Amino acid sequence: MRLLNSLSGRFLILTAVFVMLAEVLIFVPSVARFREDYLMAKLEKAQIASLALLANDTISPELQEELLQNAGVFNVVLRRNEARQLMLSSPMPSEIAMTFDLRDASAFELIKDAIACLMNNDPKVIRVIGEPAQMAGLLIEVTLESTPLRDAMIDYGLRILLLSAVISVVTAGLLFLAVRRFLGKPIQGVIDHMKAYAAAPEDARRIIQPSAGISELRDAEETLQTLQTELTSALRQKERLAQLGGAVAKVSHDLRNILTSAQLFTDRIEMSEDPKVRRLAPKLVNSITRAVNLCENTLAYGKAEEPSPTLNRFMLADIVNDVIDSERLAVGDSEVSFSVNIPYAMSVRADSEQLYRVISNLIRNARQAIVNTGKAGEINVSARENDEAWLIRVRDTGPGLPPRARENLFTPFRGGVTKGGTGLGLSIADELIRGHGGAISLEGTDETGTTFLIRLPKGDISTK
Predict the structure, then answer these.
(1) What is the CA angle 356-357-360, rounded to 5?
(2) Which top-level group of life is the source organism from (predicted)?
(3) What is the mean pLDDT of residues 73-100?
(4) Domain boundaries, the chain
């Protein structure tokens, strides 16, 4: 049963069936041709028997009977010079039932007559008309019994069918061996490679090496090789991410303790009489608070307990201005300007800390890209809303994103643009926005700058 369900077994069965089908299609014309040859042979024997009478006008009844028996006919009629002459004759068991003219008979007529002869097993006498051999007259007629003809046709047909069966078995066997050799073994080799790879997908040595000579199978091997290579790379990357996550969790734990201690000093800073210090103290407090929250979230993420966004209403412009104020401190002497085009009364419903991180990542990437060019540039944050969502755009006049960054835009450790960057910023931003049910996308980038679009859906939350 296993053999029949295999590819080679199916080929074996189909080949035998198709060869038998072909032989059956050939069988009927072949039997028709055999019947024609059989009747033509009777005519030739009858003509040879009549030559004895032509050579000698009178022959004995015993010789005449012997000639007719050798020819296998009841009588022979030969037409010569427009005269129809009964050359040999003997008593017939019954009247003539059918007449067949082999002169200019079409293939269809021969096949039809052959089928009729096989289907009818009643004994009867038939007349056969043909042309004499060597042009010895105009025509020759013989009468004979149909039963010996039918028996001969059946015997011939059985031999043909037996031969067809032998040919089918031999052909199917050869094809079976060929399929096993040239197709079955390579496929089994691919299966073995897949099983070996599944046992240890991190082991690059188990990645299949294409070697098949059949183009289709080689394409399958090359596709499998690409898939296994990408999967092995992804597993290694996930392993590195897992290790990095553990390290980050430990660092975040210690950093949280340090930042918590730093919060204790902010009260003294706020009591400073320096106006500039008093003005910057709240921003320092907010930055430290955000850093502590980030460490706590990182610890939760390391435990596979990343919190869902806590949705609340707040003014979007306040968050954007906080980010820009922080970035202005990082600009230093660089000629990077910031602009905000957000209606002051526009409020959004989102997690304020997470949205701060998203916008901060986008603006920081834009600022670093402009600074790296050594030229002046501008970063603009704008927003609008419709009935379905809030739309936030972050535009810059930087050099645009390189092709590699576009292909791996939101992929950790692969979408970095600046030298030494990890590519985590956009990946984090994308994950946070998706947590809100929204999306962040690259709206456009070229040598004149880059634009990112953040879409935060309103859903069925009332805006009243």
Answers:
(1) 85
(2) Bacteria
(3) 79
(4) 2-173, 202-307, 309-457
